[in-house]
Specification:
2-methylcitrate dehydratase PrpD, 60s Ribosomal Protein L30, Chain: A, 2 domains, two-stranded antiparallel ribbon, 8 strands, 51% helix, MmgE_PrpD_C
């Protein structure tokens, strides 16, 4: 007997969210939200190209290339092409491996990796115009952030990497929107996404961290494709007693998912990293860079550095002796030393060479940090004691890249050109940046991936 697919046969969170996704048109999204969606996309492409030559991407490609189907979709910043599902995986890895991508500050989700990686890979498999892709991107970001809000922080505190676990819903919603799923199919896609929700914080500081958004992109796309073929699932996958929220979190606030849909936009709250590491370290880097500008080579005369930070800083980045560049991204001590000695918080600060630099290690060993629950997540106090026992104190009230000090379009451009220029060269990086900002006017946004490919 053929499965009925024309209406939702259950009321609930998953059904209502699916109904909203299916019914939303591009004109329902306010211009300022679409503009933030465009900034999200531009920043994501720069990060994907910037990470393209990392050894993590090399190893992922070596593993999946023998199993790829028809090569339809580009790996940004590289000559390889894979089938759309594997391209979504690898571009998701590439976009996150430098830890330089976007952040939804309320949940610490990196929204673009799962969603944009899936959409652009699909855009080379079937033609998608830029306006529709941007609409789907905003929807995907909105869905994953709302689902993230509903379970954060309890879900994160359990040890789940929320970019992977919530991101799969965003990718499924975005691809499902492009595929024009009906309401029941969209609910099935949410259920299929819920069954593939994964990612553990234990993996931070390893290659597997960037695997999470890549896998979320691939799994979310697969969920939507299965649903398009009427592959069914529970219609209450998010809220059921044995569904996503109840199994994976001690908190379930479904108003965060359904409340003010279409009027309160989580996608408008996205932020963009000025530094290539965990965002909780950014206040420290910001303050240490300011100190470096003030003291110059006196940085070589530092005796001790004392940091007073938010507790999450030490929970996430308390690695005293990182051995690799990926581990260094989760060391507030390494980040502070690099910023004080070289003024650096870019990807060049977080390489294997820098992690093992004798000069960095020497200063790193003289840096201490304490947690203060009254310290804001975007704040830090830094106390420098010099070899002559003089003291300099710097307080950063809100770090650059925070909601109070967001990156401008020009700063996003600079970030894009610097990191992608190292991979594809200055001229090609400019061409990719230019076409990204023109996204909404493109008849076929697969052109973006092709412009970002190398020979």
């Amino acid at each position: 007997m053929k499965t009925p697919i024309n209406d939702i046969r259950a009321a609930g969170v998953t059904a209502e969210l699916s109904r909203w996704i299916v019914g939303l048109s591009g004109t329902d999204i306010p211009n300022e939200v679409r503009r933030e969606g465009l900034r999200t996309f531009v920043n994501w492409v720069g990060c994907a190209v910037g990470g393209a030559h990392h050894e993590t991407v090399d190893r992922a490609l070596a593993a999946v290339k023998p199993f790829s189907g028809k090569a339809t979709s580009t790996i940004l910043g590289r000559p390889e092409r894979l089938d759309a599902l594997h391209a979504a995986l690898v571009n998701g890895i590439s976009s996150h491996v430098l830890d330089y991508d976007d952040t939804h500050l309320k949940t610490i989700i990196h929204p673009a990796g799962p969603v944009a990686s899936a959409l652009l890979a699909l855009a080379e498999y079937q033609e998608i115009n830029g306006a529709d892709l941007l609409t789907a991107l905003v929807i995907g970001v909105e869905v994953e952030c709302r689902i993230g809000n509903s379970v954060y922080p309890a879900h994160y505190d359990r040890g789940w990497h929320i970019t992977g676990t919530a991101g799969v819903f965003g990718a499924a919603a975005a691809v499902g929107k492009i595929l024009e799923l009906n309401e029941t199919q969209m609910s099935w896609a949410m259920g299929l996404a819920a069954s593939q929700s994964s990612g553990l914080r234990e993996m931070f500081g390893t290659m597997t961290k960037s695997f999470h958004p890549g896998r979320a992109a691939q799994n979310g796309m697969f969920a939507a494709l299965l649903a398009q073929s009427n592959y069914d699932s529970s219609l209450q996958a998010i809220e059921a007693p044995r569904g996503f929220a109840n199994v994976m979190s001690d908190k379930q606030d479904y108003n965060e998912i359904l409340g003010d849909l279409g009027t309160r936009w989580e996608a408008a709250l996205n932020s963009y990293k000025p530094f290539a590491c965990g965002i909780v370290i950014h206040p420290t880097i910001d303050g240490c860079q300011q100190i470096r500008e003030e003291i110059g080579e006196r940085a070589r005369n530092i005796k001790t550095v004392e940091l007073v930070t938010h507790p999450l800083v030490l929970e996430l980045t308390n690695k005293h002796t990182p051995k690799t560049g990926l581990e260094a991204k989760f060391s507030v001590y390494h980040a502070a030393a690099s910023a004080l000695l070289y003024g650096d918080g870019a990807p060049t600060a977080f390489t294997d060479e820098m992690a093992n630099s004798p000069e960095i290690i020497n200063l790193r060993d003289r840096i201490s940090a304490v947690a203060d629950p009254d310290c804001h997540e975007a704040s830090v106090t830094i106390k420098i004691t010099f070899s002559d026992d003089s003291i300099l104190t710097k307080h950063v009230e809100r770090a650059i890249g925070s909601s109070e000090r967001p990156l401008s379009d020009a700063q996003i451009d600079t970030k894009f050109l610097v990191q992608s220029g190292l991979v594809v060269g200055e001229e090609q990086a400019k061409s990719v940046l230019d076409i990204c900002w023109k996204l909404e006017s493109l008849d076929n946004c697969g052109q973006i991936a092709q412009v970002a490919a190398t020979q």
